[in-house]
Task: structure prediction
Amino acid sequence: MGFNCGIVGLPNVGKSTLFNALTETAAAEAANYPFTTIEPNVGRVPVPDPRLDQLGRVAKSDKIVPTYLEFTDIAGLVRGASRGEGLGNQFLAQIREVDAIVHVLRCFDGEVTHVEGSVDPLRDAETVETELMLADLDSVERQLEAAVKRARGGEEEAKARLAVLEPVAALLREGRPAREVRVAKELEPIFARLHLLTVKPVLDVANVDEDSLAAGGNAYSERVARRARAEGEGFVMVSAAIEAEVAALSDPAERREFLASLGLEETGLDRVIRAGYALLDLITFFTSGPKEARAWTIKRGTPAARAAGLVHSDFERGFIRAETYAWDDFVACGGEAGAKDAGKMRSEGRDYVVRDGDLLRFRFNV
Result:
């Protein structure tokens, strides 16, 4: 199950530096955490999770397989992208394909020229958001015109579409993103099929200089953080320049030493990955055995049978039950036998809602 975060931003804000650092750091990880290049501008990176390593040690697994997020370096955006300016059409086409938007905002001064002539991350955020809203409005108004004609002819489906399109269009005309609209539950499938850009969750990444990162931020990043809270968006602060230096270190020990010298316990990229995971409301469940310990990504609220299907389609089709352990019980009891003896194993049915950190053994018959 792939979940993709598109990295967007104006020119010269550090977007590509961040993406390159993200993928280079992943490529430099130990063999148990492989990095995969899917195509030139898409990177598949492991979600850091110390629980998986502990499970692997207890289960004496030969291999550790983490869960992943995909990051796409979206084509650069300029003002007027919704009208096809610059690489606007390419930008909009790429962003329609991702599950969430990682918006890199420049929060540092310096000699690098900004496309707008000055550093103002809130203006940059508004530029991107405006272009997305204009693109959505253009799409919605074209669909609205067609739906009105069909509804006049008595078509019931067109009437249902109008009940969704009209409030969305009104909201976008007010300069507000489509994610703010509320539609009746029975109309949610129609809303989803609109494939609007401004319904996608957003993670704001404040790209600061090294000194500001050490100081816990600067005036620019504080403004971005306040905006993110007000808009219900995610927020992470990183220094893309530092991340690029970290990426150049292939030795994990050297990397830890470098981070420690800056007073940091982890890379900003780890925080970006975890924040993207949280933004998409994802959780992790585990499977383990002598061959491998593996983490799996699912949406919160997924039932056990569907989770089983992620591991293998036969598991879902012939699902009988899921033998379930909390990961920390499994570790504390020294593995499966100890956990069973301690009464920590639960037998769950197909509709059991999987919890974050569950270790599952699927029983099936096909």
